[in-house]
Amino acid sequence: MSGERLSNAELDDLLETLEGWEKVEGREAIQKTFVFADFVDAFGWMSKVALTAEKMDHHPEWYNVYKTVEVVLTTHDADGVTGKDAELAKAMDRMAQR
Ligand code: H2B
């Protein structure tokens, strides 16, 4: 997967294909808030995502309170959103389905 920053048009196309992801105001990043049934579900999902993220060597910025996880994805090395963020966003969505 490419480490190149997506153009604005590519980012808009990506966001049309993703459910619930949006641009972060004032930053080259995308965000989504996941709400689970309870803390165990939220943390279980975070654990699965963490293993995938580590394999990808691509790590989320995230904030968890009880059953809610706020996620921000960006590629620090590229200073923007890349295909790696797209890949991780899709993996997160897949893993949140049950
Ligand atoms: N995660 C994210 N989100 N962006 C990066 O640029 C990044 C990363 N770089 N995880 C990786 C680790 C890099 O620092 C290591 C050295 O490969």
Automatic annotation (TrEMBL):
Superkingdom, taxonomy of origin: Bacteria
Molecular function terms, GO-annotated: 4-alpha-hydroxytetrahydrobiopterin dehydratase activity
Matching CDD domains: PCD_DCoH_subfamily_b
Catalytic activity: (4aS,6R)-4a-hydroxy-L-erythro-5,6,7,8-tetrahydrobiopterin = (6R)-L-erythro-6,7-dihydrobiopterin + H2O
UniProt cross-references to Pfam families, sorted A to Z: Pterin_4a
SUPFAM superfamilies: PCD-like
Entry's Gene Ontology BP terms: tetrahydrobiopterin biosynthetic process
UniProt keyword list: Lyase
EC number: 4.2.1.96
Record-stated family: Belongs to the pterin-4-alpha-carbinolamine dehydratase family.
PANTHER family, per database record: PTERIN-4-ALPHA-CARBINOLAMINE DEHYDRATASE (PTHR12599)
Protein name: Putative pterin-4-alpha-carbinolamine dehydratase
Organism: Saliniramus fredricksonii
Originating gene: phhB
